Amino acid sequence: MEVKMPLMVILGGGESGVGAALLAKAKGYTVFLSDRGLLQETYRNMLLQHGIPFEEGQHTEEQILQAQEVVKSPGIPEKAAIIQKLRQKNIPVISEIELATRYTNARLIGITGSNGKTTTTLLTYHLLKTAGFNVGLAGNIGDSFARQVLENSFDFYVLELSSFQLDDMYRARMNVAILLNITPDHLDRYEYQFQNYTNSKFRILQNMTPDDTLIYYQEDPVISKELTDRQPAVQVRPVSLIGSPQPGAYLNDGLLVLADGHQPFQANMAELPLKGRHNAINMLAAISAAQAVGVGPEALHRGLMTFQNAPHRLEPAGEIKGVQFINDSKATNVDSVYYALESMTTPVIWIAGGLDKGNDYGQLAALVREKVKALICLGKDNQKLVSYFADRVPALFETQDVNEAVAKGLEWGKPGDTVLLSPACASFDLFRNYEDRGNRFKEAVKRIMN
């Protein structure tokens, strides 16, 4: 008699969903993948090749509600009708991260925060890789964690974790967790309650033990308050820009200092490829995590010196007639723009705009007054930006064309100025995503250069 294996349904057929489907099938589940959109050809072929049944363009409720367990794409909101029906039937809904952690004994370094996650994750991975560690990179970046667990045998994984991924994690345990900052973001997914979003971020600590290490930015008021209230039973390693925690990591007169009593470490920020105070936090967190798993001082220094950040994060896009162009398209909230403007040492022509996510521009007022000589609004609806900044900047221009925005930036710029694309908004009004926006900005700069 044939034994029917438990049904695992995968909702969403992107990188994480297809990876989860492959792992689930390899572990003996009956698997069915469902995506309301159309699958990319690569993923469709992968599912066909492995004999995994799937549907696209719809969710067949009758089949999905037969599942013993569901793996949900982080892009599907809790309020989606199919998720609500799963909840009503008490069918467990988990993330790809939760599934993959069941099948690996690797040590896990998890990184979250409203800003700086990707840079810190890439740097932490680079520090371990440079030191010769057998390490994978996954989560909200790179290849599917589940597929890597299936196909590789890494000793370590560095995971970028969004709040949406953390929401569907229950038994996963991080050996090292980094909490960079918590500022309002994605509140439409959290009933517009900041505490709900904060609680989501703090799920990174669940299941951690006194043998595990939490690295956090000491000056973040939300994190500090929550840690005081929660008192987690973990080893804590604060990161600070104004104090000198012992043990911990801090910035002291331009030096990154790691103080743990065993292998002290220092590096001069002026010599390193990442610039700005926000990147000091990211670097201090990354070197703290790397040291926590055994990376020594020489390897830390070598890794810091050779790191190249991901595109669209304060990325140099070219220079024309002495005017620098910087692509910071990933800055989709006010907090990211604050860090970008703070790191500027030259007069700025600021390009901002897009889909506003409920931004409060008040926290930028002083920096804009100090640093910005002109504002170019690049978006379909610039009303909120214009009404707030019209009286706060010497010059303002509106456009829906990135080529026109770049041309106006060059027209207004003088040698030594910087034209900074740092939008503070989502990109979906004029572009496919923030990468598309950044790439088209860079192309516009190159066209003029050529």
TrEMBL record:
GO cellular component term of the entry, any: cytoplasm
Pfam entry (one): Mur_ligase_M
Top-level EC class as recorded in UniProt: ligase
Pathway: Cell wall biogenesis; peptidoglycan biosynthesis
GO BP: any one term: cell wall organization
Main subcellular location of this protein, as a coarse class: cytoplasm
Keyword Cell division among record annotations: yes
SUPFAM superfamilies, per database record: MurCD N-terminal domain (SSF51984), MurD-like peptide ligases, catalytic domain (SSF53623), MurD-like peptide ligases, peptide-binding domain (SSF53244)
Keyword terms: ATP-binding, Cell cycle, Cell division, Cell shape, Cell wall biogenesis/degradation, Cytoplasm, Ligase, Nucleotide-binding, Peptidoglycan synthesis
EC number(s) stated in the UniProt entry for this protein: 6.3.2.9
GO molecular function: ATP binding; UDP-N-acetylmuramoylalanine-D-glutamate ligase activity
Annotated ranges, domain Mur ligase central: 111-290
Reactions listed under catalytic activity: UDP-N-acetyl-alpha-D-muramoyl-L-alanine + D-glutamate + ATP = UDP-N-acetyl-alpha-D-muramoyl-L-alanyl-D-glutamate + ADP + phosphate + H(+)
Domain Mur ligase C-terminal positions: 312-425
Protein location: Cytoplasm
Protein family (similarity comment): Belongs to the MurCDEF family.
Name of protein: UDP-N-acetylmuramoylalanine--D-glutamate ligase
Organism whose genome encodes this protein: Larkinella arboricola
Gene designation: murD
